[in-house]
UniProtKB/TrEMBL annotation:
Gene3D superfamilies with a match to the protein in the record: 2.170.220.10, HUPs, Isoleucyl-tRNA Synthetase, Domain 1
Taxonomic lineage: Eukaryota, Viridiplantae, Chlorophyta, core chlorophytes, Trebouxiophyceae
Domain Methionyl/Leucyl tRNA synthetase, residue spans: 230-443
Alphabetized UniProt keyword annotations: Aminoacyl-tRNA synthetase, ATP-binding, Ligase, Nucleotide-binding, Protein biosynthesis
Pfam families hit by this protein: Anticodon_3, tRNA-synt_1g
Entries under SUPFAM superfamilies matching the protein: Anticodon-binding domain of a subclass of class I aminoacyl-tRNA synthetases, Nucleotidylyl transferase
Protein name according to UniProt: methionine--tRNA ligase
């Protein structure tokens, strides 16, 4: 939306219209502005009518009553048809146990990226869900004396509850036990069968139940132990159906050689090394596993969990009864712009999955992005170590914004990262409570005392060379580029650079001095400085909103914006000039409470000493 229209629009919506400002030293400018506002109103209305006719709001915005959803072409960047949709997925999480921090991490990163894409005006589909078949699930259910389905239902509700607490806004949640998914698996299996890529053969080898996979000698540690599960693999021999992956050797290798298909770069090299060593066919059925989807032509076998689960990305898009045909899928956004995965399951997504799709004659995803592993206080997490991080206890103690902010700011998405509760508390307090929360609060306090909580001038009237205005423009560009490239930490740092500069600016300008003993002109300048800071905080809130949606909405409310205005925001609103003259602010309230209470996880001695260094 053009800056001018936005500012005027907010004027029209501003509840303060017609009220008299309390600052005597700016009453003249206020009056002259009132004329220009009434003059502009009719033309704004006309342009809105045109806009409404030209575009319709996206579904989630319609629910929230957004009148119109501008596309990012308003920004001057026209969006090609191919760019109007954005389809991303988290893995479908395995329900052998309750959701852990690793799953929460992937999901919050995917959610932040999806939220940014929605701000750009794209039609976003974020898919998440659960992978519910396989031996390990049957074992977990049996250990609790439950039927597998009963066990799955319980774990699935834990996942859904966690996503709600974490403020995850997904568009589709697929369970691999849903009938529509089973139909998709059977239909794709038939397509692959017809291509001649499935054959029956005897297989003998070392099998890790934890990985649900056979292991080569090179993939095991001493005494045939799985390096991930630290458990001895079991020797198995069965007659299975195999998928002829090796047939796609050249195509898959070329795909991974393409820059950008597998990210980050280090992971791409790893995959490339593995593929160049020669692809081997893999078995796609299990004779010994009853908890799964039966192979249509041979019900004595069930579909291998990975072949089953990967197809969930497809069934998530399709309504019940709609066939998995290329046309139907493409109409719903297929293929994915990106699959977000942990590095431990990259091979299945970067190699097996493209092979399956090539065989079925379906388009390949555009990108597979693998993130790293999490440690706690510098140590690998594990049940035996007793240091497993429970996302729910963190959320209960600190709330979604703090948890999302820490993991997405402190860990470079794509690399391994560490959680330390001490570090967590330090950075959340330093940035969310102090740099942002405090800045807003004390600026509002001064505005209340000296201007009756009403903006004496519009943010757009702040000179173009104002240091906050200059920096905000630079950092908004930086944040946009960072979000586009999934560099979430960098996008957040852009926002924090503005709030940090805002604090410095307040010290430099010291508006409280001018209010106390300055001339009318100095008071006017001091009031304008408050407007500049508040506008900067508004921009920070928008930049950070994909990661801290709750905090950002509280900041917007604190700036006198309605929930509808917040819900209908677009990325183009990061342009300077959103706060209108005469905007009335509610009573200043802290938007983020400092963390003071005791830590909730085991803060080990080594962590304390590490933090003290
Ligand atoms: Zn394993």
């Amino acid at each position: 939306m053009p800056l001018k229209v936005l500012t005027m629009l907010q004027h029209r919506l501003s509840p303060s219209m017609g009220r008299t400002l309390q600052c005597p030293w700016i009453s003249i400018s206020r009056q002259s502005h009132a004329h220009s506002v009434s003059h502009c109103q009719s033309s704004i209305f006309a342009s809105n009518v045109l806009r409404d006719a030209a575009r319709s709001a996206w579904p989630w915005q319609q629910q929230r009553g957004c009148k119109s959803a501008a596309s990012s072409s308003d920004n001057g960047n026209s969006v090609s048809a191919d760019n109007r949709t954005f389809f991303a997925t988290t893995p479908l999480y395995y329900v052998n146990a309750e959701p852990h921090m690793g799953s929460a991490y992937t999901t919050m990163a995917a959610d932040a990226i999806a939220r940014f894409q929605r701000l750009l005006g794209r039609r976003v589909t974020l898919v998440t869900g659960t992978d519910e078949h396989g031996e390990k699930i049957a074992e977990a259910a049996a250990a609790k004396g439950q039927q597998p389905q009963e066990h799955c239902d319980g774990v699935v509700s834990a996942f859904k509850g966690l996503w709600e607490e974490l403020d995850i806004r997904y568009d589709s949640f697929i369970r691999t036990t849903e009938p529509k998914h089973e139909a998709v698996v059977k239909s794709i299996l038939s397509r692959v069968w017809e291509t001649g890529d499935i054959y029956k053969a005897k297989y003998e080898g070392w099998y890790c139940v934890g990985c649900e996979a056979y292991k080569d000698d090179s993939e095991m540690e001493g005494d045939h132990a799985c390096p991930t599960h630290k458990k001895r693999c079991v020797e198995r021999e069965e007659e299975n159906y195999f998928f002829a992956l090796s047939k796609y050797q050249n195509q898959i290798q070329a795909l991974i050689e393409e820059e950008g298909f597998v990210q980050p770069e280090a992971r791409r090299n790893e995959m490339l090394g593995w593929v160049r060593a020669g692809l081997r066919d893999f078995s796609i059925s299990r004779a010994a596993v009853a908890w799964g989807i039966p192979i249509p032509l041979d019900p004595s076998q069930t579909v291998y969990v990975w072949f089953d689960a990967l197809l969930g990305y497809m069934s998530a898009l399709l309504p019940e009864g709609v066939e998995a045909q290329p046309k139907e899928l493409q109409a719903r956004g297929w293929p994915a712009n990106v699959h977000f995965v942990g590095k431990d399951i990259l091979r299945f997504h970067a190699v097996y999955w493209p092979g399956m799709l090539m065989s079925a004659g379906l388009p390949i995803p555009k990108k597979i992005f693998a993130h790293g592993f999490l440690t706690k206080d510098g140590m690998k997490m594990g049940k035996s170590l007793g240091n497993v991080l429970d996302p729910r206890s963190l959320l209960k103690a600190y709330g979604a914004d703090a948890v999302r902010f820490y993991f997405l700011k402190e860990i470079v998405f794509g690399q391994d990262g560490d959680f330390s509760e001490l570090r967590f508390r330090d950075i959340v307090n330093a940035y969310l409570a102090n740099s942002i929360g405090n800045l807003l609060n004390r600026t509002q306090g001064l505005l209340k005392k000296n201007c009756s909580s009403m903006l004496p001038v519009a943010a757009s009237s702040i000179p173009a060379d104002n240091p906050l205005r200059v920096l905000a423009a630079e950092q908004a560009d930086r944040a946009e580029a960072a979000y586009q490239d999934f560099r979430l930490h960098d996008a957040l740092e852009a926002g924090l650079a503005i709030s940090n500069r805002g604090n410095l600016y307040m010290e430099e300008v010291a508006p409280w001095t001018a209010f106390k003993k300055g001339s009318d002109a100095e008071k006017h300048a001091a009031a304008a400085a408050l407007v500049a800071v508040l506008e900067a905080v508004r921009i920070v809130a928008l930049i950070m909103s994909p990661v801290t949606p709750g905090l950002s909405s509280r900041i917007y409310a604190g700036l006198g914006m309605s929930p509808e205005q917040f819900d209908c925001l677009r990325w183009s609103d990061v342009q300077w000039g959103g706060l209108p003259e005469g905007q009335s602010m509610p009573k200043p309230q802290p938007v983020f409470a400092r963390i003071e209470a005791d830590p909730v996880t085991d803060v080990s001695v080594s962590a304390v000493s590490m933090a003290a260094q």
